[in-house]
Amino acid sequence: MKCGEFERLVAEALDDLPKVFQDALENVDVVIEDLPTPEEAGRVNAQHRRMVLGLYQGVPLSRRSQYYGCVMPDKISIFQSNIERICKTNE
Length: 91
Fold this sequence. Notes:
By secondary structure, the protein is an alpha+beta fold. Helix content is 35%, strand content 18%. The protein has helices spanning 3-15, 19-24, 38-43, 80-86; strands spanning 28-33, 54-57, 74-79.
């Protein structure tokens, strides 16, 4: 699948999230990458980097205090190649 089509599907999925989840994505960037690095896969104890479909990097909401602010956005990486490998349809 071409990257632009995959990006469109990810954007649709984010738009379809319930509002409570969309609100929680404040100060979070969602990026599409091909594969995780070995270091990223190691952070989630994955045996193989092809097993990682996505990765959150940042400060979880439960750990943020009143001093959380003026920081770079957290990041959610969506790994296109891994998702395409296990999915049979766009849905």
